[in-house]
Amino acid sequence: MESRRDRLRAATMREISDTARRILVEQGPEAVTLRAIAREMGMTAPALYRYFDSHGELLRHLVGDLFTELTEELHKDIAAVPDGDLSGKFLAASRGFRRWSLDHRREYALLFGAPLPGLGHKERADFAEECARRFGRTFLGLFLELWQKRKFPVAADEEIDPGLREQLRRYRNEALGVDLPLGVIQLFLQCWVRLQGSVSLEVFGHLDFALDDPEPIFELMLFEIGETLGLTHAPPS
């Protein structure tokens, strides 16, 4: 059973993370410092080191929390679709990803923008990385379920560029640990690049030069991915 001390520590860590997020949203990532968080909470900056060893660890914890929130939102969207409707689940997850990203632009920038200092230390990034992997498995799981139920056309191994082929093999064997044709891995990454790239362009305002409302372009992209995977596109309700 969790002790009262553990509960108080967890509550304080949650308050620190929530405060860091509020500063991120209101002032931007550069303002998320230990001193600023301590000032907001009425603490001293050294007192925060009882909960996080460094500024980088605090940011990694915030990244993990944000990935967890995003993943839970996507799971709710997927769960609202009938079990047998894979097309609907793909659309729900993709639209949910776009919705959360547009509603939380600065949080999105922290997760998918330029890496921040302190986030690259692999030996201390376990929490953030595991939360990120769980997010990634949301889309990968749908993709693999579709492949198992009705196999869509993919490139044969020998048709893939040799340089790319080796990278795909390493990603499949070391990161995914699945027994799948390399063409399936390649197509998954192609779809993800289109989905996440489309959302990033919109979140960061890089479509403003041409479009006031990029949603129709986003839906066209979903339609084209659906055609590739044999999915049925239905307009958003």
Automatic annotation (TrEMBL):
Name used for this protein in its record: TetR/AcrR family transcriptional regulator
Gene3D superfamilies named in the record: Tetracycline Repressor, domain 2
DNA-binding region: 33-52
Domain of life: Bacteria
GO molecular function terms noted in the UniProt entry: DNA-binding transcription factor activity; transcription cis-regulatory region binding
Residues annotated as domain HTH tetR-type: 10-70
PROSITE patterns given in the database record: HTH_TETR_2
Native source organism of the sequence: Actinomadura rudentiformis
Keywords recorded for this protein, A-Z: DNA-binding, Transcription, Transcription regulation
Signal peptide, first to last residue: none
